[in-house]
Amino acid sequence: MTKHDVAEMPLDDDIAPDARIDSVPAPASLIPPLERTAVLLDIDGTLLDFAPTPREVWVPPELATTLKQLHERTGGALALVSGRSLNDIDLIFAPEMFPAIGGHGAEMRLQPDSEAVAAHAPPLDKELKRRLAAIAKLSPGILLEDKGYSLALHYRLAPAAEKAIYEAVSLIRAELPNAPIEVLPGKSVCEIKHSGFTKATGVLELMTHDPFRGRRPFFIGDDVTDETVFAIMPDFDGLAFSVGRRATGVAGHFGGPSDVREFLARLLDDRDANLS
Fold first, then answer.
1. What pLDDT digit, counting tens, does each position of 216-267 carry?
2. Residue 105 Cα distances to 128, 158, 190, angstroms
3. CA-to-CA distance for 89 and 81, rounded, in angstroms?
4. DSSP per residue over 13-52, as a string?
5. Catalytic residue among 5, 13, 42, 88
6. What CATH architecture does domain 126-194 belong to?
7. Angle at alpha carbon of residue 112, lines to 108 and 118, rounded to 5°
8. Segments making up each domain of the chain, as ranges
9. Least crowded by CB within 10 Å, which of 68, 91, 96, 222?
């Protein structure tokens, strides 16, 4: 079993010609005034460049400044939407804190200084987690990350182990067919989480709360797990942008995280110019 047996990532051949947008459209022409906008951003592979391990990612100082300004200019309607836990998000952005959806929709925080709220997401069964964690012993370089609501097996340092990891996960699932779990294939990571919640369910809940309620959102994401959010943006008359690939149903795409960071900074600059 390969990761593509779990979830298929769209290929260029699967994308309609009118979805093949080769440059990011000018923000002023698509994004509404910031006071009517909700800014929703994935982290890894979107805002931040990938690193050999999840702990080694680097937050450029200018990005933290941009996010703070966007948070202020939107009246607080900026949220990070990540597979990372809220605690992990806070660690990498320290000392800054932002509204966020963590754990693929398992956790939510509406304001930087508010308490985190679990979004009806039970933690993984301990015995199941133990069996999944043992997969990390298949090869040196496989890194195990326990997020409570999910367990991730990173193989960026052991790319040859990819097939063995997915086969081992498939075997466990076959032995436990009724286990309420979902496998999320990502970029050099296999993540197993409790079923019933996704980034999309987290965003749907987020958009019912102030200051996000009634705003037109735009979401930027790069991975398979972000496609659930791409799919619901039309429900809010919102816009989706993909990173590193031309995903279906998006308004445009970025080449990489540095392009996203430039776009967000330019968005502020454009609005400042319109106010002057």
1. 999 999 998 999 999 999 999 999 999 998 888 899 899 999 999 999 999 9
2. 20, 28, 17
3. 10
4. GGS-GGG---SPPPHHHHSPPGGGEEEEE--BTTTB---S
5. 42
6. 2-Layer Sandwich (3.30)
7. 20
8. 34-120+197-275, 126-194
9. 91
Name 125's bridge partners. none
Judge whether 13 counts as a catalytic residue.
no
CATH of domain 34-120+197-275: 3.40.50.1000
Quick one: which of 179, 192, 116 has its CA closest to 149? Answer: 192
pLDDT in tens, 83-140: 999 999 999 999 999 999 999 999 999 999 887 776 667 778 889 999 999 999 999 9
Confidence of residue 78 (pLDDT cuts 50, 70, 90): very high
Q: Return the structure tokens found at 200.
A: 């999309």
